[in-house]
Amino acid sequence: MNLKPLKGQHHVSAITSNASRNYEFYTKVLGMRLVKKTVNQDDTSMYHLFYADERGNPGTDLTFFEIPRAGHTYYGTNSISTTSLRVPKDDSLQFWMRRFDEFDVEYEEIDQYSGRAMLHFKDFEGQRLALVSDEHNSGVAAGVPWEQSQIPIEHAIRGLGPVMLTVSNLKNTSQVITNIMGYREIGHYDMNGGQVTVFETGEGGTGAEIHIIERADLPKERPGRGSVHHVAFRVENEEELKLWAQYLKDARIPNSGFVERYYFKSLYFREPNGILFELATDGPGFEGDEPFETLGERLALPPYFENQRESIEAKLKPLDTKEL
Fold first, then answer.
1. In total, how many domains does the chain have?
2. CA–CA separation, 61 vs 81, rounded Å?
3. Which segments of 47-169 does DSSP mark as H helices, in order?
């Protein structure tokens, strides 16, 4: 089957227990734009918030499901253990250290990994994040920061960088990533006493890498608030996604088949260590039901949920997203 290479990260979806505080942190502290306030289409009683660049270009979205009673995350293996966010240059990390001091954000010292400067930090729920410098990067283009952000453009977050997986069995995961998903193994580096293996796809670069560390000594992660639910990878269009669905079926990899998400089309499957992967199309995007100027200000519902708006809104705690 003549499949095109995956294009890199599409989005990362995580869990929060507090949509209001989550909105405050990701828009006011990190300066990302809320491009869509909607609901989890598999459980419309919970918010699904999308933070991204100016218009939610594919490869820039960090999303959150709100589960108010979500418990504490017990970190461990077989997890998406760090989500990185791209910033323009090494000096940007100095800016962000000062900002984190101002807002009392927990962070580590700047370090070098895989030839790039990185700054690891956590949000108010312990979500594991890192800022990665694009100063020496080439490959998949970055997004376009929102001009109305409180962060200067020269330091603003521009999209998703490498996603780190922690697994108990590297061989099983790497075989799926290379033999099925078409990634290339390109190198290694040491981190926290373990060796990280780097894989890339398509044009490569920070927006198209998966970093995997094997930790058979750790217990399996128990997810909760501050954990990552799944990572999605970019497929060009619906036609290509349907080819992937057939390809996975032929490879006898259990998967969801084609799923309509309105803002994009999706397909889900789990790699051998149980981490949930999604393939998602680059379009249609987030401007089909809201104009660019007011993205994220109202509760957006796909057309197939619109007749349920009154009952859906009744289950949600009001969340004011009109003011930064």
1. 1
2. 17
3. 90-102
Tell me how far apart the terminal alpha carbons of the chain are, to the nearest angstrom: 48
152: its two tokens:
């200067």
Domain with 125 in it: what CATH number?
A: 3.10.180.10
DSSP conformational letter for 135: T
Contact, 164 vs 212, CB < 8 A?
yes
| 22 domain-assigned | yes
235, β-bridge pairs? 281
Is 320 a domain residue? no
For 252-285, the pLDDT digits (tens) are: 999 999 999 999 999 999 999 999 999 999 999 9
Structure pTM? 0.97
Q: Please give the Cα distance from 156 to 152 (Å, whole number).
A: 6
The position carrying tokens 């790497």 is: 174
Residue 16, SS3?
strand
Q: What is the extent of the structural domain holding 162?
A: 9-315
Q: Look at residue 247 and tell me whether its pLDDT is greater than 70.
A: yes
Residues 6+ apart with CB under 8 A from 239: none
Per-residue pLDDT, 323:
64
What does DSSP assign to residue 222?
A: B
Helix, strand or coil, per DSSP, at residue 272? coil
**What pLDDT digit, counting tens, does each position of 86-106 carry?**
999 999 999 999 999 999 999
Closest CA to 86 of 125, 142, 140: 142
Long-range contacts of 99-102 (CB under 8 A, 24+ apart): 99/29, 99/151
Beta strand 128-133 with 61-66: parallel, antiparallel or unpaired? unpaired
Q: What is the mean pLDDT of residues 99-115?
A: 96
